[in-house]
Amino acid sequence: MNRIAAVILLGVLALSSACTAQDEEPMYKLPTGVRTRWASMENQDGNKGEGGREKFGRKGMACCGFLPGWSRVLAHAENSSGTVRRIWITISDRNPEQLRGLVIRMYWDGAEKPAVEAPLGDFFCQPLGQPVAFENAWFDSPEGRSFNCRIPMPFKKGFKITVANESNKPAGDFYYDVDYTIGDKHGGDTGYFHAHFNHENPTTLRRDFEILPKVTGKGRFLGSCIGVNVNRKDNAWAWWGEGEFKAYIDGDTDNPTLCGTGTEDYASSGYGMGVYSHLWHGCTISDLGKSQYAFYRMHGPDPIYFDKDIRVTIQQIGYYYKERMIGHLATHPDVTLLATGDGKTKLTPEIVKAGQENGTFERSDDWCATAYFYLNSPVDDIPAVEPYEKRIVGLISDSK
Q1: Which of 3, 127, 250, 365 has a 20 to 30 Å separation from 226 between CA atoms?
Q2: Which DSSP category does 346 fall into?
Q3: CA distance 56 to 11
Q4: How far apart are the first and last CA of the chain?
Q5: How many CA atoms lie within 13 A of 371 on its CB side?
Q6: CB-side neighbour CA atoms (13 Å) of 367
């Protein structure tokens, strides 16, 4: 096989893998009793034969406004099983206040507690309040102006998807489509889709950041989208991404069953992280000047299953160069940095000078993550998303 043929084959296999992850049956199979519905401002209830009726059917209600405090049901179904298959949204004001202020929530089978609760931007793999163009197997934004999700989201009795404006500013024009089917039959081994947003600013030295707090039940971890605002003041220009990914599953306590080798390694890169987007992993923001990074890792071909519980974390560990760190510590005597290990060694100019050429150290930065997973229950035991005032800190100039 020549090189060109090999590249084509790899591309076909990758696309096949992506389709297999989303489609339970071949595309050519025609199911019985399954009906397609779209919910949008032109047909908010997804009713048969009732789309596009406003203004004599001439695009009378393509979008809506979103004032502070407003909440809207985007799509819903009752007394039916089915599958949410695609969500598309675009808004005219794509600023940090809206991407963190608008919160998307999803409810399955009449549950009062949402299974999905995350800021709009973060849910759609656009953390740090900065929309950029990217594409992966389940999310994309073709030109950085829209938000798409294609993770299948099954329900057995009904569903509801809402968006609320929890910021103090209007969201401008809001357009959306929720594409779903009703009548799908789901067995007892079907998982419900969940998504959780977590944010710590700053993180705590030597306490791993939780991508996903402990969740009880049987399920599958689908992956996460992570954003980091690097704390240059305390950590100088040292590299921030030496921390290891960890997944504690089915009773793990002190040590995890699954453990990676480094932050950029978990995102399937190495020796730093530039901008790239691939089917299952990518880095959408790599801004050395602003010290901001955003990356994702989706577990499609390499699933992470759990039978009883799961907890997912990532360490905040940096890497310093000796001479630069000596100068930084000499000019910042109030900064507390610890060498990796037992946590008892405080870095000082003298200790760094006497040590090896370079080294790893514990650090604290501003981290956020949205975790995606399936669970055998329509509800989970995760706390509610933090208030807007805390979510926005560090993303706009008057919040710093």
Answers
A1: 250
A2: B
A3: 46
A4: 56
A5: 26
A6: 27
What radius of gyration do the chain's Cα atoms show? 23
CA distances from 51 to 37, 41, 58, 60, 391 (A): 10, 9, 11, 11, 37
**37 - beta bridge partners?**
180
Are 139 and 149 spatial neighbours (Cβ–Cβ below 8 Å)?
Answer: yes
d(CA 200, CA 209): 8
* Host H or E run for residue 8: helix 3-22
CA atoms within 13 Å, Cβ hemisphere of 160 = 14
How far is Cα 368 from Cα 248, in angstroms, rounded to an integer? 19
Tell me how far apart the alpha carbons of residues 40 and 19 are, in angstroms, rounded to a whole number: 25
What pLDDT sits at residue 2? Answer: 54
Kindly report, residue by residue over 255-310, the tens digit of the pLDDT.
Answer: 999 999 999 999 999 999 999 999 999 999 999 999 999 999 999 999 999 999 99
Q: Six-digit token pair at 300?
A: 């499609």
Q: How far apart are CA 148 and CA 288, in angstroms?
A: 27
Chain segment 81-118, per-residue pLDDT in tens: 999 999 999 999 999 999 999 999 999 999 999 999 99
Burial category of 324 from C-beta neighbours within 10 Å (exposed 0-12, middle 13-18, buried 19 and up):
middle
CB atoms closer than 10 angstroms to residue 93: 17
Q: Work out the burial of residue 166: count CB atoms within 10 Å of its CB; fewer than 13 is exposed, 13-18 middle, 19 or more buried.
A: buried
Cα 249 to chain centroid distance, Å, stands at 20
Query: Half-sphere exposure of residue 348, counting CA atoms within 13 Å on the CB side?
Result: 5
Instruction: Write the CB contacts of 199 (distance below 8 Å, at least 6 apart in sequence).
Output: 367, 368, 369, 386, 390, 391
Would you state the structure tokens that stand for residue 187, as one six-digit string? 């067995």
Torsion sign over Cα 177, 75, 386, 248? negative
Quickly tell me which residue has 């043929």 as its tokens: 5
Contact 231, 363 (CB under 8 A): yes
Please tell me the total number of residues recorded for the chain in this structure.
Answer: 400
For 21, the enclosing helix (H) or strand (E) is: helix 3-22
Largest Cα–Cα distance in the chain?
Answer: 80
pTM over cut 0.90: yes
